Every structure is written in structure tokens, then in C-alpha cells.
Amino acid sequence: MNTLLMLFIFVPILSVILLALNLLLAPHRPDEAKVSAYECGFNAIQGQTRSTFQIHFYLVCMLFLVFDLEILLLFPIAVSLYQVSIFGFSIALIFFIVLTIGFVLEIGSGAIKLSSLDLKELTTNQKY
């Protein structure tokens, strides 16, 4: 038998066995903290698991995802910059220009601007 085929057979079987052992042998102690909703580190209000958040949380999340993916694209460019020709350099330069234009537009629209009033409001509404 091919070793790759053996691997595709062995790994799922081992995974199912280990999951079954976990279900059979692990202690089951339900706790209120384990079954309650977790909302970005803030404690949920009693009886209301879906509390409202300001839009700044979602904007920061989206911007983080965009710039995190940008970092993923920068690593291969940085590693292979010596090996690519002028065409590869021009593609990387166009990528940086588009990224810079997007960042300037985000700053211009006020998407990443948190004033001190917003920060004070975010921190004082939570009851601990």
C-alpha cells in the first residue's frame, strides 16, 4: 500500500478514536461560565446575551483583517524580491500604492479615529 494512502486512512481513524476517548473519559462539569456567551471580553448583561456594541469594534476588526492579509502578502514579496525581475518589483510597487491609497481613504473617512469621548463612553458603560 502507498504510504500516503495509509496516512489518509490512519489519521481519521486515530482522530475518531481520540475524540471518542475524550467523550468517554473526560469529566463533565457544566458551569455557568462555560455555557454563557462571550462577547469580546465584556461580561454579558444578566438575561441578555446579545448586548450592543459600537460600530468602532467592527471597523477595527475589518481593518485588522485587511492589514493582516496584507502582511501575509508582504512576506513572499520580501523573501523573493532579489529573485524577481523589474516586473515583480512593479507589481509589488502597485500593491503598495493601492494599499496606501486605501489607508489614506480610511483615515479620511474617520474609520480609524477614536476620540477620547468615545473611549470614555466605551469604558464607563461596562459593569464589572
Automatic annotation (TrEMBL):
The chain crosses the membrane at residues 6-25, 57-78, 84-105. Its EC number is 7.1.1.2. This is NADH-ubiquinone oxidoreductase chain 3. One of its GO terms (cellular component) is mitochondrial membrane. It catalyses: a ubiquinone + NADH + 5 H(+)(in) = a ubiquinol + NAD(+) + 4 H(+)(out). It is found in: Membrane; Mitochondrion membrane. GO terms for molecular function: NADH dehydrogenase (ubiquinone) activity. It comes from the Eukaryota. The keyword Transferase does not apply. Belongs to the complex I subunit 3 family. InterPro entries: NADH_UbQ/plastoQ_OxRdtase_su3 (IPR000440), NDAH_ubi_oxred_su3_sf (IPR038430). It is a multi-pass membrane protein. The keyword Magnesium does not apply. Its main location: membrane. Keywords: Electron transport, Membrane, Mitochondrion, NAD, Respiratory chain, Translocase, Transmembrane, Transmembrane helix, Transport, Ubiquinone. Core subunit of the mitochondrial membrane respiratory chain NADH dehydrogenase (Complex I) which catalyzes electron transfer from NADH through the respiratory chain, using ubiquinone as an electron acceptor. Essential for the catalytic activity of complex I.
